[in-house]
Amino acid sequence: MKTRSQRMALSATGIFVALLFFFPTYWMLTTALKKPGDILSTEYDLIPFSATLDNFTTAITKPGFTTFLTNSLIVTLGAVACALVAGLLAAVPLARMRFSGRRGFVLLVLVAQLAPLEALFVPMYLIMRDANLLDTLPSLLLVYMAFTLPFTIWTLRGFVKGIPIELEEAAMVDGCGRWGVFRRVTLPLLGPGLVATSVFGFVTAWNEFLYALVFMRDQSKQTLPVWLSSFRTAFGTDWGGIMAASVIYALPALVFFMLVQRKLVAGTTAGAVKG
Amino acid sequence: MMLALSGCAGSGGTGQAAPPAGPRTLTVWLMNGSAPDKLTDQLHKEFQESHKDVTVKYEVQQWNGIQDKLTTALAGNDAPDIIEIGNTQAPKFAKAGALVDLTAEASDFNKDQWLTSLKDSGSWDGKQYAVPFYAANRLVLYRKDMFEQAGITAPPTSRQDWLDAITKLRAKFGSDPDFQALYLPGQNWYTLLSFIYDEGGDIAKRDGTKFTASLDTPQAKAGLEFYKQLQEASGTKAPKDTDEQTPEQAGIYGQGKVAMMIALPWELATAAKGNPDLTAKSSAFPIPSKKAGTTAPVFQGGSNLAIPAKSQDQDLAKEYLKLMTSAKYQSQFAGAGMIPGTSTDVAALEKDPVTAAMAKASSNGRAVPATPGWATIEAGQNPLKDMLTAYLTGAKSIDAATADANSALNKAFAG
Amino acid sequence: MSAPTVNPLLPAEAPPRAARPQRRFTAQRATPYLMLAPAVVILVALLGWPALQVLGISFRRLDLGELIRGEIVWVGFDNYREVLSDPEFWIIGLRTVLFTGACVVATIGLGLGIAVLMRHLDAPVRVALQIALVLAWATPIIATTTVFQWIFDQQYGILNKTLVALGFDGFAGYSWFTSGVSTLSVIGLLILWQAVPFIAFTLYAGLLGASKDLYEAASIDGATPLQAFRAVSWPALRPLLTMVTFLSVLWDFKVFTQIWALKQGGPDGESTTLPVLLYLKGISGSHFGVASAVAVLMLLILVGVTWRYMRLLVRSQETEL
Predict the structure, then answer these.
(1) Do the beta carbons of residue A215 and residue A137 sit within 8 Å?
(2) Is B163 helix (H, G, I), strand (E, B) or coil?
(3) What CATH homologous superfamily does B139-299+373-413 map to?
(4) What residues in A contact C197, CB-CB < 8 Å?
(5) Each residue of A223-249: pLDDT tens digit?
(6) ipTM of this model?
(7) DSSP character for A218?
């Protein structure tokens, strides 16, 4: 058991690390709250003295914001969901079953992650064009799913392997079928793993710029990263606007994490009960 | 990148099939922040009224990543019909055969009144591939009130005047540690170009379609030396290793402690966002020349309009271009504070002292070398910026700095 | 130990009498393939096929002109010769490998530390830390890079201002970007800031997977925290750790946006890495053939760097069941 002072020291370290990681976000937030003239100030402005919500108003009222937000959500959530399903389907046999050809599959998954994605965008563009998918949200959904899939498979495979096989065998003995074992034992224990991978997929898809830019020519199909770049024009950059937009932009990822966070806890308790 | 395999060869020659009957769509790509919405709304309405079967599909593009987007769009068989391209990009796409040769129709687009710098940048190998759209050039924004207090009665009209004004300003306000007589970051290469042109030099010498870098000439070196002299005299605190956008110079001018900055006219509005008094307190003068009484030649940035070779309806696109380059719409650019590309009517610019200063220098506007290599430099690493930083910080001698930049440029020109 | 070989293409042609057990057997054998099918289709169609095309292009001259005219010009190994004969390539390659190495070591070290820390923190502090991490992770790259630029700005940056306020007057107007090394260090911090949250969360999830009861049992048995960690956490962490190391190598090697946004590979090309070179050759130079050659070489370097690990992985796949 930990002593009181150990606890204090741990908490202090935790708070310090949290502050370090929070600082750039904090800086983004305060910049978003600053008046245009205060962004480049020689004053020592660690804590902003006067704040305004103007930048947020500008950002939200910029034409198309809700459309872009919706597009981003559809593409991202769709890609995450599809990647999780396909990834989990592939991860279970990889971790638990014997079959020939797994060596080849493992190699495929590994090598798929090596390719520099920036180099693939022209062939990808052509595939989507030939499939008549340009200017449609599914084209991005597919691409983002493909980007996150190798990672998803790989991570989930690790998590499936991490589940003691005895638990599953015990459940099998208790009369659960394969599916029952999966649903009652494997899936709950996979909670944290599913959360980690889905947050990863979410952030990757949510931030992707190049493919969104090249695939989507119709403005009504654009996503938020492209919207964000519209704050930079030939006439200069609206930095306060960019920062406010970035805060808004980061919110869904945060909400998503908060939603899955409960799952993470649930997964833990399930693990503790069953363990 | 496997266009060839995907069978999109076929189209792309000059021989166009008859325009398809029935409703037609004209896809127009303009850049974010270029033509005012009022202008495009009116233009598209008028065009659609005179072409009842046509719908104009207007798509605004972002500068960020535009090269990727143009590359894929111009190579595919689904190209837009009209594109706006930065004035440094045209030769690259023209050389590759991505743009329609407009030499024969040039007079339809008000050829006689074209802005020289944009005309140059839209041509390749003696042919015209892009039509001027609009441009802007830099000027010196200054604080009238500070000039007055420092006893400067008239805006400088020669380099010497300029340096004298800086001396007076520093004498008057130098006690304030935050004061800067002129804000000049190390990598404002557009300004450097002005000084080099003023010395009679240029970035490169042209021979047909071949360009040879000429930064190692005495004229170019003299321009670089003046840049250093000016920077040292000004007492600027601007970093030597960034350009005017990082940090954004308008924001610094907006702090109210800077007496001058070399900027585009609309940067004043950006600066005044946080400090509304600045608009009334500021004015502008053209970048002074070595020779008293004249203005220095300036680099002119801007855009051209072009028709992609893979446009499905090039004749319609030409009609659109004709309307867009007509005096009626071009005058609106002047009204919006930009130099129109196909009209010499800049009366609207004369009303405001800041844009008037831009218009005054604009007749002496120049473009960067019209070579495909320049697009590579613009979208990649700019040797002029490295040259400036290396020389200003003393990392390299003037001979070494210019020689290195020269060979880097030649490498880019070679493709 | 070798798994029994199963041919997925073998049709279920069973003698009628043994129909039932046989069919069941085949269905079971087909299960793994059916489960893998969606993933395989996506990977092959959307990553494998484009990657093969890039390989093909690396043997062609494909500039903007060829691209638009739809010409196919095979040039053999010319692109590779061009890239490899440029001494710059070797400098950039070495720089990229070193940069990747430094980033990976720092990310994994910090990520592991934070994961273990989270395991031992009380709920409120842990949640605060998790929120800070998620925010760092979720912030769009364009905003993060801009914020870092501001923080490290020579005149107006809060870092220099803070250092001066703390009495280090030498940092007034100090430039953090004068050399490639210092520029890459700032970029490294930026990458660290964005990458650590993911690593920390993954490892933390792995730690949670290791049963808490076991952990407490170990500490009741009088094991020191370190012993408990080695006995209980380590076995759960090890596969995850090797995996995130592998992934970090891949990601950090391929970082482009942050490097480009901060200094475009400058000063004087000193922070140019292979992905930046790829961009310069491809997007800005429109030499797609050469760029594809760079991409293929990058892939080969990555394979070289991770070879041992990949072999281990593929092998362990056979045995570790």
Answers:
(1) no
(2) helix
(3) Periplasmic binding protein-like II (3.40.190.10)
(4) 21
(5) 988 888 888 776 677 788 888 988 888
(6) 0.85
(7) S
